[in-house]
Amino acid sequence: METTQNTLSGSDNAKRAAAARALEMVENGMKVGLGTGSTAAWFVRLLSERIHREGLAIVGVATSSTTVFLAKDLGVPLTSLDEAGTLDLTVDGTDEFDAGLNLIKGGGAALLREKIVAAASNRLVVIADDSKRVAELGTFPLPVEVIRFGVEYTRSAVLDVLSKMDVAGAQVELRKVRDGALVTDEGHYILDLHLGRIGNPSRLSAALNALPGVVETGLFIGMADTVIVGKAEGWCEMHFRDAPMDTSELMRNEDA
Ligand code: 5RP
Fold first, then answer.
1. Closest alpha carbon to 193 in 223, 161, 221, 220
2. How many whole angstroms from 28 Cα to the centroid of ligand 1?
3. How do residues 154-209 score in pLDDT, each as one tens digit?
4. Considering Cα of 120, then 198, then 101, then 234, what sign does the dihedral take?
């Protein structure tokens, strides 16, 4: 059955509109990275509809076990990243994006696979609603994926790094679920860094990645090629990495 937007909230309409616009970039034969989260889930649902309606032949590479489950449930063909090699396109959500299309990701604890899949893609298209747009990154707590061994040492090393950085706050929390610490798909922990404002995201990213216990951070610097911002009314705003914000193209979504 097709997903309709008639009964959707404004936020879901916006996410759906962004996902529908990203879907227009998918062509027959493509290898497509499938993101994680509620916005990326809209893309997987709409992709599944096109596969079943038009016989669109694509193969997906999922960025999390949650997305594997959803894609399988909806009949979207999947393969592994190793089998696929380079991907044509990845469509993923974000927790924040700034004017330079730098991102904070990992709210859904999938940042490591998301970053690897994005790096293996010719194009990273980010889909979002207006709530994800920020003047400066850092309001959303920055997720950092860390090795479980010695997590308290790594936490104190992260605090030491933060004391030398241009950030507004420096609280570091181990992400928890009901029965204890959250364990990622790759078997690691997540530290959430409450920073308020990140003055120099590239410098912070490099300093955190230099710590032995850190696997990867949720800072995606210079990786997104396009950010599509869906609106509750069903249209989209397009932002391209190499174009200044004020030349963004406004798109009306035909099936919105
Ligand atoms: C998961 C992510 C998600 O893309 C991010 O958290 C956005 O999720 P949502 O679309 O549900 O707001 O990075 O690790």
1. 161
2. 26
3. 999 999 999 999 999 999 999 999 989 999 999 999 999 999 999 999 999 999 99
4. positive
Q: What is the DSSP letter of 234?
A: S
Does the global pTM surpass 0.70?
A: yes
Annotated domain spans of the chain = 10-131+222-252, 142-215
Task: Determine the pLDDT at residue 1.
Answer: 44
Of 43, 90, 91, 105, best ligand 1 pocket probe by most atoms within 8 Å of the beta carbon: 105
Nearest-angstrom CA–CA distance, 248 and 125: 15
Kindly give the number of the ligand 1 atom that is closest to the alpha carbon of 93.
4
| Token pair belonging to 176 | 């928890």
The rounded distance, in Å, linking the Cα atoms of 123 and 100 is 16
For the record, the structure tokens of 222 come out as 């210079």
- Centre of ligand 1 to C-alpha 110, Å, is 8
Q: Using DSSP, state whether 138 is helix, strand or coil.
A: coil
Give SS3 for 93.
coil
Could you give the count of Cα atoms lying within 13 Å of 209 in the half-sphere of its Cβ?
13
| Alpha helix segments (H runs only) across 55-150 | 65-73, 81-84, 111-119
The CATH class for the domain spanning 10-131+222-252 reads: alpha beta
Nearest-CA neighbor of 126 among 226, 32, 31? 226
Residue 35, both tokens: 């993101």
| Confidence at 243, pLDDT banded by 50, 70, 90 | confident
Structure tokens at 212: 């032995």
Q: Could you tell me which CATH number the domain at 142-215 has?
A: 3.30.70.260
* DSSP designation for 141: P
